[in-house]
Amino acid sequence: MAEAVVAQTGSYEVTLEAGKSYAWCRCGRSGNQPFCDGSHAGTGFEPVVWAAEADTTAYLCGCKHSGNMPHCDGSHAAFG
């Protein structure tokens, strides 16, 4: 499997809606960051899919190396 592309050395601040499903880009190649647009085809990566439990603001990983995917854990500091 190829290495994930660092899409951004920081988090993406997004508004999530309770009960709505989201697909976070794991490969870093999506043109719709931080969400998946199918650009992972052939890379061995799959998006992280989940449903938001509440209406909330979330900080999603931009470097694609978080230990708490899809949420930012500060791992991007190693790439800045």
Helix/strand layout:
Blueprint lengths: L11 E5 L4 E4 L23 E4 L4 E5 L20
Antiparallel strand pairs: 1-4, 2-3
Residue-averaged pLDDT: 96
Shape: globular
Q: Please provide the ordered H/E string of secondary-structure elements.
A: EEEE
Low-confidence stretches: none
E-strand count: 4
Sheet with most strands: strand arrangement: 1-4
Using the CA coordinates, give the radius of gyration.
12 Å
Number of domains: 1
Please tally the helical runs, counting DSSP H or I stretches of 4 or more residues.
0
Percent in helix: under 10%
- Biggest beta-sheet profile: 2 strands, antiparallel
Percent in strands = 15-25%
State the distance separating the first and last CA atoms.
Answer: 24 Å
- Return the structural class: mainly beta
3D structure, described in words:
This protein has one domain (1-74). It is built from no helices and 4 strands. It is an all-beta fold. Helices cover 0% and strands 22% of the residues. The mean pLDDT is 96. The strands form 2 sheets. A two-stranded antiparallel ribbon has the order 1-4. The chain has a two-stranded antiparallel sheet with strand order 2-3. It is globular.
Compact summary:
With 80 residues, the chain is mainly beta. It has strands at residues 12-16, 21-24, 48-51, 56-60.
Tags for this model:
80 residues, mainly beta, two-stranded antiparallel sheet, single chain, 4 strands, two-stranded antiparallel ribbon
